[in-house]
Backbone:
């Protein structure tokens, strides 16, 4: 085994990038971490997440620990407000150009980890899905996260706490019309988590979750879904809502209760759209720039030649983490971050030493 | 006559009828109007779930596993998960006929991933309905009142409880007369003491016990209903009263084990009397006789040319785990050909008599396409059997009635295992039934 | 002075009821033995014309609007006002809905002895002995009457209505309404007749009940005819109701209704215990069944081992022909 | 205001009854007692009235059996507010209706109810029914065979059943006495759990009373009617059977 002294480039300072950087450094390899925003933390930070699924950890606190673990690591060089603008070369000798506030920098790195994450599905001004842009009291999961974090769960229209809140699942996911034929994986758990938090903050509120089927992976079943139903009296109703109509100053949601085989028309104060995941703009941009394959939805194609490696991209030496490759929860993100770190360090060590 | 009924040509029609949200009122053309669900609320679910024992009502997540195995849903529109959903849409279980349709057969609990336990939920909900002054079906009310007054649901005098003994043709010692310790205290229970077909089985069993030289005695007039079905029908207080009296009575006598005719009594003694201070070693008679097979087998001398099938009583099988003893006894009968029904052992169908169903027959029939007992005898006939063998005293009369009402009376006879054994032992004739 | 045996005349809507004549017959038989006379108390509003049709030696008529339907309080107050002066040996009152209220009230008010549920009244030696039916008819009580004036509340249907007036029509004596009627605390008395459409078998006096022996739904018509001819309502055992041949409101038995009619005429009912439970308290049970071992014969007063269709047709010939 | 319900325990006619050696009473050792079924209806009717009017129901009974507590606790569990038990030197005796009425009158006068309800009859009221007897001693209006009642503007409207479905509707000034044949609805069921709870929480007021004159009915002898247990079988052709049936019905006034 030999060292060539090169660093691993990690693109993205969210949970996946941070964990990858932390692990690479822990393995004794230097890291260059590039983050477009002015600070680390990624989407959970940018969108003011209140609590993390599934241990109800305070998001700020948990991210703070993670960030501290990276910033305190001397082997990690952090470049915020920076972007990778060009990349050439191959494993063991990637020459990348990085635009930093101080100017363009050229670096040679041995391997690259892409942790550019996802963005929330946008219900769309043009499509006016569920009138998100028309009705102030129709919000998304991320809007609700911010309200929960501020302990200010209110109807945006009047600032009053809602008496009745309805979650609509699968907004922007599992939909051929929209083009997102995949399940976003986390929304069922997050809606259930938010429903619990709403009941904790507004014990008298009635919370409904309208769903096609509840996809509760692993422990989310007993840690989120069951407590929400059994302890927090959240009403789960099988049957997705078709439309939302204004009714006085409230909202009428219409759909079919498929279990009962009967139409339903329920008046509520606040509707939360459980919007799914899409590849972030950074993910799409980096994929193009790095010349790695994307799938039809724009996510980075993972799997490698074996099809079994969840962090391998189409280009040797470039690895992908978490939601840049597929809808992913934090478990997936951390698991792939650690794996990508190990693969990157291994690739670095096996690559030929640079000619110069 | 129900005032909401009016006569239209040859049928009676209800003035207004809303069934499961469907308004089926209207003239004879029966146009349906469908009701929109306007609200969901956890309140009615919570009203049930806050009752001690009924917590699991709120756990249902609508997987639907319970519905296909629910014997009531097979003949109607029921099923535990539906109760949860109806409550969520505003139908109060406490005011709904659904409250009285469950037979506590426990088949739903057997398959439920979330352990929603109707065997505990139903008694709690029924008791709550009674305590909150809701009307209960008249048939059930009469059975409960009879039990409170007479110690049996039939409303028969206590003194007559031992009257069958004089027709037994063999000694049936009665403890208050013999005043000596016995090995086996035979708990006869109500239907085997009073109902003519129950008495047939009791006489058969008394003769078998005698032929085996069993040291046994009965309580006779001092015995009161063990009370398990009354408890399940919602009358916990009545059950406790009966149990306390029975425990006091049993304390007066020396015996080593109890043998019961009735699986419901078995269930009460095993699971509920201990909580009230009554600890006994209790056996169902089929378990005892199966143990005695080495002695019994040589006595089974007469060949019985029957093709038989067997109905597992819910409270012997699913509730107390005894599936084999009755089958061992049947298979020991010379000449008998044994066939199983499709639904047998753990997923056995229910006769409809448990959980108070014995005293809700007309009420239940009014909410079902056919009785559970009728469904079962048709299944029995479909096996080609000519004899339906039972070992729970609720079943003989229920299945015989069902055979009549389904028109298979001449093709299917209902016999207690004890009757078949006694017949093979030459202790009773074929027509003793 | 000749002793009198007094009878309270029960009438409904201008007609004396059958039991009135039964009591007058009983009174006559007692009077004949004792050398007493029969006195009828006829109270009502414009009922005086009935007096002549009553086989009594004398008819005491009190007419007042408050007595229109023989309501309990006014009737009892008139009797309580008249009896201390009239002092009959016996006052016979029907043990009916109208009579039972009056008999007990009057006896208590005057502190006279009373024998209720009386099914027989006869001389034993020089004494009169009344026999009362008690404990659901399971026990008879013989009461030897003493010399005091006594009220007898006699069961309807227990005595023969064979009284004839020995001589000319009885003496009719009109009395003024006693002052008590001016201060009544019973107001507004109205009679209502049932609507014909309602059939409540628990309240029917006569029931023709059919069981599986009727064989098919078409044969119900014959049973319905028998019921009509007897003035009875049609009821059934469970299998027929289950089959939908008759509504559930007609079902007798454990899971149906419990009935206690005066007549229960069972056609083709074998008598499962569940059925017997619902009807065994009927006063008179007559059963027709082909099976001599049918358990119904265990509770029936009279039974016929016969074909129910043949017996029904023979009955119809006699009742309608 | 108050509605009094008088409740009585009577020998259970479901049991086989035997006559005491004295010949003038049942063998009380072999008797089991039940609540008079009509009194149960009287209680139900009283509770229905009270639920509509806000009156207080007081259940009153004379303990001739030593077992009346169960009946009174059940009444309390069903909704009666008070229960009063009269005890005295008459346990195990067959109390005459007249004597019962005399014992009850002072209690009723003290309670000052506006209605007294009791069952239309009892299986042992040889010397008449309790309701009219009480009415006579109290000097109040009354009606028996009541199948429904309603308190309206200071009077009670009563439906009294005659026969063949004919009913009489009366208005009685208050206070009044009603002998109830059937409550407007079947007597409610009260679970034993509730009765046992009441037994722990409520109490029955007991009054010791003196036995009055005419304590027992003036019976000369009691006997069991001669009655065949099984049907008398009518024989002959269908025509002969029909003749016999018609004869039987005529003899009983049923035709």
Residues:
């Amino acid at each position: 085994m030999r060292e060539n002294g090169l660093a691993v480039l990690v693109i993205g300072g969210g949970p996946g990038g941070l964990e990858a950087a932390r692990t690479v450094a822990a393995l004794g390899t230097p890291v260059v971490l590039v983050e477009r925003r002015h600070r680390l933390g990624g989407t959970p930070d940018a969108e003011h997440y209140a609590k993390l699924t599934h241990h109800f950890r305070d998001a700020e606190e948990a991210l703070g620990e993670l960030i501290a673990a990276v910033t305190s690591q001397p082997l990690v060089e952090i470049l915020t407000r920076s972007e990778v603008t060009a990349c050439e070369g191959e494993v063991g000798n990637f020459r990348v150009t990085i635009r930093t506030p101080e100017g363009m920098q050229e670096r040679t790195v041995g391997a690259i980890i892409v942790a550019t994450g996802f963005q929330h599905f946008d219900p769309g001004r043009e499509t006016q899905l569920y009138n998100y842009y028309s009705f102030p009291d129709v919000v998304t999961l991320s809007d609700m996260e911010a309200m929960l974090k501020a302990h200010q769960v209110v109807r945006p229209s009047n600032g009053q706490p809602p008496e009745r809140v309805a979650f609509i699942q699968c907004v922007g996911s599992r939909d051929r019309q929209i083009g997102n034929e995949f399940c976003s994986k986390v929304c069922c758990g997050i809606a259930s988590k938010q429903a619990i938090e709403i009941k904790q903050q507004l014990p008298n509120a009635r919370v409904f979750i309208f769903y096609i089927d509840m996809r509760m992976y692993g422990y989310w079943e007993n840690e989120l879904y069951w407590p929400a139903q059994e302890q927090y009296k959240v009403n789960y109703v099988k049957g997705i809502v078709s439309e939302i109509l204004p009714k006085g100053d409230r909202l009428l949601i219409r759909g079919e209760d498929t279990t009962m085989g009967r139409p339903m028309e329920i008046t509520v104060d606040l509707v939360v759209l459980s919007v799914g995941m899409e590849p972030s703009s950074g993910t799409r941009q980096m994929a193009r720039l790095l010349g790695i394959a994307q799938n039809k939805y724009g996510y980075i194609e993972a799997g490698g030649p074996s099809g079994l490696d969840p962090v391998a991209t189409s280009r040797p030496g470039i690895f992908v983490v978490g939601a840049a490759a597929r809808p992913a929860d934090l478990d997936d993100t951390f698991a792939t971050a650690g794996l990508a770190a190990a693969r990157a360090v291994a690739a670095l060590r096996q690559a030929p030493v640079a000619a110069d | 006559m129900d005032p909401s009924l009016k006569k239209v040509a040859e049928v009676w029609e209800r003035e207004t009828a809303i069934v499961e949200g469907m308004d089926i009122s209207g003239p004879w053309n029966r146009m349906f109007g469908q009701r929109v669900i306007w609200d969901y609320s956890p309140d009615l679910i919570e009203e049930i779930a806050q009752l001690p024992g009924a917590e699991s009502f709120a756990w249902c997540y609508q997987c639907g596993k319970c519905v296909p195995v629910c014997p009531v849903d097979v003949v109607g529109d029921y099923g535990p998960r539906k109760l949860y959903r109806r409550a969520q849409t505003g139908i109060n279980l406490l005011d709904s006929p659904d409250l009285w349709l469950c037979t506590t057969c426990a088949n739903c609990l057997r398959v439920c991933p979330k352990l929603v336990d109707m065997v505990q939920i139903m008694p709690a909900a029924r008791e709550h309905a009674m305590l909150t002054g809701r009307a209960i079906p008249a048939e059930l009310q009469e059975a409960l009142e009879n039990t409170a007054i007479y110690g049996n649901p039939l409303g028969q005098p206590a003194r007559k409880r031992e009257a069958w003994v004089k027709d037994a043709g063999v000694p049936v010692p009665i403890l208050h007369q013999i005043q000596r310790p016995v090995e086996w205290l035979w708990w006869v229970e109500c239907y085997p003491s009073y109902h003519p077909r129950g008495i047939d089985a009791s006489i058969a069993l008394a003769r078998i016990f005698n032929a085996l030289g069993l040291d046994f005695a009965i309580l006779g007039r001092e015995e009161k209903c063990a009370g398990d079905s009354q408890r399940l029908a919602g009358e916990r207080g009545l059950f406790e009263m009966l149990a306390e009296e029975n425990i006091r009575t049993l304390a007066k006598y020396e015996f080593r084990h109890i043998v019961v005719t009735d699986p419901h009594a078995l269930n009460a003694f095993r699971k509920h009397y201990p909580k009230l201070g009554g600890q006994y070693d209790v056996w169902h008679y089929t378990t005892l006789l199966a143990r005695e097979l080495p002695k019994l087998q040589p006595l089974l001398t007469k060949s019985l040319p029957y093709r038989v099938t067997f109905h597992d009583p819910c409270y012997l099988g699913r509730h107390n785990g005894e599936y084999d003893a009755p089958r061992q006894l049947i298979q020991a009968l010379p000449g008998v050909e044994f066939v199983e029904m499709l639904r047998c052992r753990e997923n056995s169908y229910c006769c409809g008599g448990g959980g108070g169903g014995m005293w809700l027959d007309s009420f239940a029939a009014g909410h079902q396409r056919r009785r559970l007992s009728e469904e079962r005898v048709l299944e029995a006939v479909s096996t080609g059997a000519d004899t339906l063998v039972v070992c729970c005293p609720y079943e003989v009369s229920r299945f015989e009635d069902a055979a009549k009402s389904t028109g298979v009376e001449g093709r299917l006879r209902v016999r207690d295992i004890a009757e078949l054994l006694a017949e093979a032992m030459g202790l009773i004739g074929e027509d003793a039934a | 002075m000749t002793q009198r045996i007094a009878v309270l005349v029960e009438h409904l809507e201008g007609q004396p009821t059958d039991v009135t004549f039964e009591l007058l017959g009983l009174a006559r038989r007692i009077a004949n033995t004792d050398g007493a006379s029969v006195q009828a108390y006829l109270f009502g509003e414009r009922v005086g014309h009935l007096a002549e049709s009553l086989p009594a030696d004398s008819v005491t008529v009190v007419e007042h609007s408050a007595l229109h339907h023989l309501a309990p309080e006014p009737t009892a107050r008139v009797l309580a006002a008249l009896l201390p002066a009239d002092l009959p040996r016996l006052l016979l009152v029907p043990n009916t809905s109208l009579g039972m209220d009056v008999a007990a009230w009057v006896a208590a008010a005057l502190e006279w002895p009373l024998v209720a549920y009386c099914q027989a009244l006869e001389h034993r030696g020089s004494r009169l002995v009344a026999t009362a039916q008690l404990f659901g008819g399971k026990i008879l009580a013989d009461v030897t009457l003493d010399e005091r004036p006594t009220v007898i509340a006699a069961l309807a249907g227990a005595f023969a209505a064979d009284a004839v007036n020995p001589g000319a029509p009885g003496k009719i004596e009109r009395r003024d309404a006693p002052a008590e009627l001016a201060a009544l605390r019973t107001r507004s008395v109205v009679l209502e007749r049932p609507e014909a459409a309602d059939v409540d078998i628990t309240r029917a006096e006569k029931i023709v009940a059919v069981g599986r022996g009727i064989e098919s739904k078409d044969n119900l018509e014959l049973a319905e005819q028998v019921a009509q001819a007897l003035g009875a309502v049609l009821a059934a055992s469970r299998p027929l109701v289950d089959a939908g041949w008759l509504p559930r409101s007609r079902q007798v038995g454990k899971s149906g209704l419990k009935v206690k009619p005066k007549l229960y005429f069972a056609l083709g009912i074998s008598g499962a215990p569940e059925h017997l439970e619902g009807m065994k308290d009927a006063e008179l049970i007559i059963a027709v069944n082909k099976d001599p071992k049918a358990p119904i014969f265990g509770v029936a007063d009279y039974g016929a081992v016969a074909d129910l269709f043949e017996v029904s047709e023979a009955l119809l010939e006699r009742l309608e022909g | 205001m108050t509605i009094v319900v008088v409740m009585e325990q009577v020998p259970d006619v479901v049991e086989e009854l035997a006559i005491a050696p004295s010949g003038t009473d049942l063998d009380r050792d072999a008797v089991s007692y039940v609540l008079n079924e009509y009194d149960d209806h009287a209680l139900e009717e009283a509770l229905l009235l009270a639920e509509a009017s806000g009156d207080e129901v007081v259940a009153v009974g004379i303990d001739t059996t030593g077992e009346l507590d169960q009946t009174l606790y059940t009444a309390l569990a069903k909704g009666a507010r008070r229960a009063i038990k009269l005890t005295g030197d008459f346990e195990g005796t067959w109390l005459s209706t007249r004597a019962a009425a005399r014992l009850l009158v002072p209690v009723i006068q003290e309670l000052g109810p506006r209605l007294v309800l009791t069952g239309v009859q009892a299986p042992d009221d040889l010397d008449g029914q309790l309701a009219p007897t009480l009415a006579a001693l109290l000097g109040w209006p009354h009606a028996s065979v009541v199948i429904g009642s309603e308190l309206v503007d200071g009077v009670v409207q009563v439906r009294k059943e005659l026969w063949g479905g004919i009913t009489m509707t009366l208005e009685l000034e208050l206070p009044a006495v009603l002998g109830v044949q059937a409550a407007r609805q079947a007597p409610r069921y009260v679970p034993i759990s509730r009765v046992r709870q009441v037994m722990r929480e409520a109490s029955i007021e007991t009054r010791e009373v003196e036995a009055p004159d005419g304590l027992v009915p003036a019976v000369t002898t009691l006997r069991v009617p001669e009655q065949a247990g099984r049907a008398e079988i009518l024989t002959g052709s269908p025509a002969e059977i029909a003749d016999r049936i018609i004869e039987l019905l005529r003899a009983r006034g049923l035709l």
Q: What stands out?
A: The domain at 4-183 of chain C is CATH 3.40.50.620 (Rossmann fold). Chains C and A do not touch (no CB pair under 8 Å).
